[in-house]
Amino acid sequence: MSTTKLFLRGVADMRRFPLPQLCTLLTVCMVALLAGTGLLILHNVQTEVLRTQAQARFQIYWKVGADLTAVEAQWADLKRAPGIAEVSTFTPRAALSELMRGLAPRTSGGALTGAEGNASSGEDFSWLEGDNPLPATALVSFNIPPDEQPEPWMGRMYARLKGLDGVEQVTYNPTQLTLATGWIALVQKAAWPALGFFALVVGLVVGNTLKLMMLARKDEVEILSLVGARPWFIRAPLFANGVVQGLCGSLLSLVCLKFLQSWLRSVLDVPPLFLKVEFLPLWQSLALVLATTCVAGLASLIAARK
Questions:
Q1: In the chain, what's the furthest Cα-to-Cα distance?
Q2: pTM above 0.70, yes or no
């Protein structure tokens, strides 16, 4: 009998033991779903870290009393600068308004109280509008060029921004890049042990389940051996069984993972989190299916040999 017919016979024999097959399928699906969830978390963490690592943020403070016309012209130049990602600007008056809004007391319902309440609490700074001590500020985010080292590039950009006319102070946090790099290294190191653990669990589950199934078919296997059937004639159907279980279980786990990703996105993509949970890229989805199928097939082959 050809190998193809042996594989087809193994697939057809799955109908003879529906309950053990269903239990094996659900178990493989659950294990693959657990591995897929881990990959989903690692992928989104790495995506978020890479997004923040690729940007450098600077807080620019102009001198108090600087000419707003000249400052606004500099803001317009910054918005047209190469590699600019985002520019948020605050005039002294806008900064004072934000300060008053942040310090204003709230009612039990969360609404702001009126000006009388601010004045009575000593938090009404409207009298400063004629002599505002706050400077014009800007929060600027740049996309770091991929061919540049982050820290030297940020140092050069810092010197460039500090040299703008009327700028008194420029701040940025270089440790953010170091933290992001550390996160990426941690994610990459954690991926392979997680995949290895997943492969081990799938192999143990499928292998032990097939061993239990072979106990039910012990008499059939012994008869085939007594009549002179070759080992591959006995093992090929069991190997096909494991491959089909791994393929179907991994595909079913991807469907469940898609529902989980959609639910997480609807829950987390709201204020103030705004976390966009993305699904696994195509190559990771294919790798999950291929790995589950191969491990299940290998486990069934080893179980059949014993």
A1: 105
A2: no
Residue 216 and residue 241 in contact, taking contact as beta carbons nearer than 8 Å: no
Residues 295 and 198 in one domain: yes
Q: How many CB atoms lie within 10 A of CB 158?
A: 16
Residue that is last in its domain, among 156, 173, 190: 173
Dihedral sign computed on CA atoms, order 189, 193, 199, 202: negative
Identity of the residue numbered 297: G
Residue whose token pair is 């016309």 = 69
User: Residue 187 and residue 180: Cα distance in Å, rounded?
Assistant: 11
Q: Do 47 and 194 reside in the same domain of the chain? A: yes
Q: Profile the chain (306 residues) by mean pLDDT over runs of 10 residues.
A: 68 74 83 85 76 74 88 91 87 74 54 44 53 81 75 84 91 65 65 74 70 66 69 75 86 94 85 76 90 82 69
> Whole domain around residue 300: which residue ranges?
3-51+180-305
Residues 243, 294, single domain; the answer is yes
| Same structural domain, 190 and 46 | yes
Question: Do 207 and 302 meet the contact criterion of CB atoms below 8 Å apart?
Answer: yes
Q: Is the dihedral of CA 299, 303, 304, 306 positive or negative?
A: positive
Task: Report the distance separating Cα 87 and Cα 77, nearest Å.
Answer: 11
For residue 169, what are the β-bridge partners? 61
